[in-house]
Amino acid sequence: MREDPCRRFAFGITIEDTQLRLWLSNRGFLAVTEPINCFENIDGVISLFYALGFASASTSLKGLGWDPTVERIYVGGKMQYKFTVGDEVFTTTRELATYGADSMVGRGTRVYEATDAKGKKVAIKDSWREIDRQSEGEILEKILASCEKKLGAEDFADAKRHFVGVRLWKDVTIDDASDETVNPVAGDEYDGTWKWKHIDIGPILSERLHLSATGDVPDSGKLSAFLPAQLGIVRRKETRIPQRVHARIVFHDVGVNVKDLVLISLADTLSCLSGGLKGTATILILLTSIAHAIRGDETRTRELRTGTDSVLGRKTKINYQPYLRTGTDLVE
User: What does the angle CA 99 – CA 23 – CA 127 come to, to the nearest 5 degrees?
Assistant: First the structure.
């Protein structure tokens, strides 16, 4: 899941002494079965391995979590990938950012530089958004439409320069169906027997050997400063299991970090930064447009994120001057 973009989800089996558990990991959640005794429930063990073996007989292996829309290839001795987006195929040339996939539960965002069939360079982003969220392409369309209404033709053309051009975006489909994570509380299979496992937000890491099937935490030697906060969110009563949909978006351009432009002068570097900050009024309008585009007509409360009042208020309150939005208007 962390290392291989060809994996949509993964099954795992652990056996400790006579206790066998089946694990399922996808971008929405990590689930584990109650243990069964390998010797006392041999029919169940046989059925499990028969089911996994039957799924592995499929040519695409999609039943075991493999993604038939991604192909691993070797170019010049280096591993690359072919991503299918709609009717087009893009071949990666290098990674731009893949650390978003380190956490197995989450968006699993990966970004690559790639080329299309004609060799044109693009950037491709593969991620899993929550199923009730708008796609990135839809949000951008609404932002630009809002800017076009608020700005003149010249200012609007300048505003568009602040956004990377989008070539296309599509949700991934497999066998003509949207690629989505399992919703464990929907469908005929749900019988209400699943339950949350308690998570200790202040774990004491043990130096002894850990048993993964019993939930022991391995001794990594270092506890993340953010872990208690993250586990605290998980433990809250209103926590739900987010269902996610697999999505891809292709950008026209691949950006370059200013720090990597070692051949340009200091004056040119400062000029680039100045151009990015030019036009305070335009930026405030963009922030307002972004907030409305992301938020839309939502009524469900979400965590702290870009586009919410709590975040937007901090971003637009410059030097304690009340640059806040009232309705659809900006006030100074």
Answer: 30
Token pair listed for 59: 């040519």
Residues 198-223 have a mean pLDDT of 51
| Maximum alpha-carbon separation in the chain | 76
Task: Report yes or no: 97 and 107 within 8 Å, Cβ to Cβ.
Answer: no
Percent of the chain surpassing pLDDT 90: 30
Q: Which residues contact 254 (CB under 8 A, 6 or more apart)?
A: 96, 113, 121, 122, 123
> Tens digits of per-residue pLDDT, 146-181?
888 888 888 888 888 878 889 999 999 998 889 999
Element (H, E) at 85: strand 78-85
What is 265-288 written as a DSSP string?
-HHHHHHHHHHHH--HHHHHHHHH
Burial class (CB in 10 A: 0-12, 13-18, 19+), 236: exposed
Q: What is the pLDDT of residue 1?
A: 79
Q: Which amino acid is at 237?
A: K
Q: Which of 146-160, 253-267, 317-331 has the lowest mean pLDDT?
A: 317-331
Q: Locate tokens 């001057």: which residue?
A: 321
Calpha distance 240→162 (Å, rounded): 35
Cα separation, 43 vs 50, whole angstroms:
10
Do 217 and 206 touch, CB atoms closer than 8 A?
yes
Residue type, 180: E
Amino acid at 224: S
Distance CA 2, CA 24 (A): 14
Cα 23 to Cα 30: distance, rounded to the nearest angstrom: 7
Query: What's the pLDDT at 320?
Result: 44
